[in-house]
Structures are given as C-alpha cells and as structure tokens.
C-alpha cells in the first residue's frame, strides 16, 4: 500500500493539485511491506501536520517541512517512491525522509512546468 507523504487533502487545500491525486501523485511504497507500515507513517506525521481532513494554513514549503518531521522515527522502513498510475519509480531503496526529498524535487519540476519556464 502506498503512502502519500504530503497528504492529498492538505495539498489540495493550498492549490497543489499535482500532489492531491490518488494515482498520479508519487507515493512511498515500503519494500518489503509489513502490516502496520502505512499506519506507522501516519503516526509519525500526524503530530506535525494535524488531522488529514483539515486544510493546511501555511505555505507549500511549510507543508513539506511539517511532512518531514517525525519521519526519522520510521527510518527503518525503506522502499520506493513511485507514481501508481504509471509504475514509474522516482527513487528506490530510500527511507520515507529521502523519498520526501525526491517528492519535493518532483513537485518543484511540476511547478516549473506550470509556469511555462524550462
């Protein structure tokens, strides 16, 4: 099961549609997956990002910063950052925190593409 390292609802609430899709947004997939891994990721992030159903009131940079806090507690997990709809692997053999850094790079590329700059 994949985990959206930046919660989709929070991303959508600040206009980051590319981070708010179920299948087109890169997600972290623990490998090997063990029952409870997904829940452990939520527990690690929840104190820093708040309830998933609530909007984000800060900037995109602040959301990425908050999403990264607590991920050191799940550094024993490794896996892939993958786009579910295409199967494209953006990073493999990475911890959740390393995957988040790669996700931020992907996000910045998407933002550059939206502005028409290369």
From TrEMBL:
Organism, as annotated: Sorangium cellulosum
Name of the featured protein: Uncharacterized protein
Highest taxon, organism lineage: Bacteria
